[in-house]
Write a structure and sequence with these properties.
There is one protein chain. By secondary structure, this protein is α+β, with helices and mostly antiparallel strands. It has helices spanning 2-49, 64-76, 88-99, 104-107, 127-138, 150-191, 194-202, 207-243, 253-283; strands at residues 53-58, 80-86, 115-120, 143-147. 71% of the residues lie in helices and 8% in strands. α1 (2-49) runs antiparallel to α6 (150-191), α1 (2-49) runs antiparallel to α9 and α8 runs antiparallel to α9. The chain has 2 domains: 2-47 and 182-291, no CATH class; 53-148, Alpha-Beta Plaits (2-Layer Sandwich), CATH 3.30.70.
Length: 292
């Protein structure tokens, strides 16, 4: 009978530890995913910004030397990521591929213009800077026009600011929830041992001596939970990077590594603090208060 009771208690204890590990792992996993989103929010927004094209339309009488000189000067400019010269023939072939018919047969000639497509670096994709670049380029006699999607740039910049603000707010709220959930799981595990704590205290054990095994056990559970969470994060990061390689999520490996180390440390710190205060609470309770 005693052996059966001990086995039952052991199963309950293992189940309790298992639930704590799962709780810690899930919370840290979600917290880590949110951290990856925060770290890569700028990278993702920069990626979209750098796809905005500033098109410089050239006069038909523009000399090849002038075009090459303009293209080289743009390529060397600090605000330019890349440039691409598009001849009027290439533009006509592109339109033919897009619309499935050769409009040149109806028009009788090629009305399109030679152009240079310019992709700017993300920091320079603002209406003010694009207008400034456009005005300076239009001063060249062989440049006919400079165009870009002003509405798209305006909407993109306003949405990036709004989304960044909400990400920070959600991150703060979720971090608080993570601490509360892990703290609750640890307190429940310590609560199951409240009578053992009080018994040790009654036979003269010091608070530090009683608290030490609980803290070390919780830290081990926190480490296991953090490792499980990190494995999950690594799998998600691998598949997202494989599916969307243009986002270059693994480009800044130092930040990614810092995030993983941070999640691991958070798992240890939260379990340590939670166990410390949970055991402190039961150490300060009177014997008759343990039943409530």
């Amino acid at each position: 009978m005693s052996s059966s009771f001990e086995k039952h208690q052991k199963r309950r204890l293992i189940s309790s530890y298992f639930s704590v590990v799962i709780s810690i792992a899930l919370v840290l996993f979600l917290l880590g995913l949110l951290g990856m989103l925060v770290l890569n929010a700028r990278t993702i927004s920069d990626n979209f910004k750098e796809k905005v094209v500033l098109t410089i339309y050239l006069n038909d009488n523009a000399k090849e030397v002038e075009i090459n000189q303009l293209e080289k000067s743009l390529a060397l400019a600090k605000y330019v990521k890349e440039t691409k010269y598009v001849s009027k023939e290439d533009a006509a072939n592109f339109m033919k591929g897009e619309y499935g018919e050769d409009f040149l047969d109806d028009v009788g000639y090629n009305p399109l213009q030679n152009s240079i497509d310019v992709n700017l670096k993300a920091n320079y994709v603002t209406a003010h800077r694009l207008d400034s670049i456009s005005e300076s380029t239009l001063n060249k006699k062989f440049v006919d026009d400079v165009r870009y999607d002003k509405d798209l740039v305006s909407i993109m910049n306003s949405n990036v600011k709004r989304i960044s603000l909400w990400i920070l707010i959600i991150s703060g709220i979720f971090t608080l929830i993570a601490v509360l959930l892990i703290n609750s799981s640890i307190r429940l595990a310590v609560y199951a041992k409240r009578f053992t704590i009080k018994t040790m205290q009654m036979v003269g054990a010091t608070k530090q001596f009683i608290r030490r095994p609980f803290i070390w056990r919780s830290i081990r559970l926190g480490i296991i939970g953090a490792i499980v969470a990190l494995i999950g994060m690594a799998v998600v990061l691998y598949y997202v990077n494989k599916t969307f390689p243009e986002l270059e999520l693994l480009q800044n490996q130092i930040l990614i590594g810092s995030l993983f180390v941070g999640v691991f440390i958070i798992g240890i710190l939260i379990t340590w603090f939670s166990t410390y205060f949970a055991t402190q609470r039961f150490l300060n309770l009177k014997t008759d208060q343990l039943y409530y």
